[in-house]
Amino acid sequence: MGDNTLWIAVITGATAILASWVTGRGSSRAALHQARTAAAAQQAERQRDARRSAYLALIEHMHTAGGLYRQWHTAAVGRTSDVQTAEFQGLRIQIRDNYHRQFLPALHTVRLEGPDAVWAAAAQVQSTSTSTFKLLDDALQTSAVADELHHSIIAFWNAVDGFAVTARTALHP
């Protein structure tokens, strides 16, 4: 009888150790899975915040550029003399500075943050902005180019709207 008790105690102890090991292993796997899931969620949130900041910065600079383009167009259409040349030079410098110091860096940040669809929409804004900028000086010479400038500004704003829609879709799929 004593031998059976010993065997039962050994089997019970071994079973308890095995059950504890299996439970511990399952718990550690569950904890590891939970930690990975939490890390992935945090990473996704950080990426979303970085993208949102990049998109907002670019939109801010697009609006600055668009406002300056409108000022230029309004001044060019209402131009009556060469007295306004200084005004045009000042606007041109503001437009150029906004483009090189603020717009391009924000554009490159959007390219870095992605995704590709948002970058493509941002590149479209850059293209229309470049086309508009090239028309500025010519718009002072002839009203035909002033009309082309007006249409180019409209194309710029349409590209800005397209970017905003694409960015919103990327942030809130």
Descriptive account of the structure:
- The protein is an all-alpha fold and 173 residues long.
- It has helices at residues 2-77, 85-113, 116-139, 143-171.
- It is rod-shaped.
- It starts with a helix and ends with a helix.
Kindly state the mean pLDDT as a whole number?
Answer: 86
Counting H and I runs of at least 4 residues, what is the number of helices?
4
What is the rounded distance between the termini? 71 Å
Q: What sequence of helices (H) and strands (E) makes up the elements? A: HHHH
Q: Number of DSSP strands?
A: 0
How much helix, percentage-wise, in residues?
over 70%
The percent range for strand residues is: under 5%
Residue windows where pLDDT falls under 50 for at least 5 positions: none
Biggest sheet statistics: none
Radius of gyration: 32 Å
Silhouette: rod-shaped
Label the structural class: mainly alpha
Q: In summary, what is this structure?
A:
Helix content is 91%, strand content 0%. The chain has helices at residues 2-77, 85-113, 116-139, 143-171.
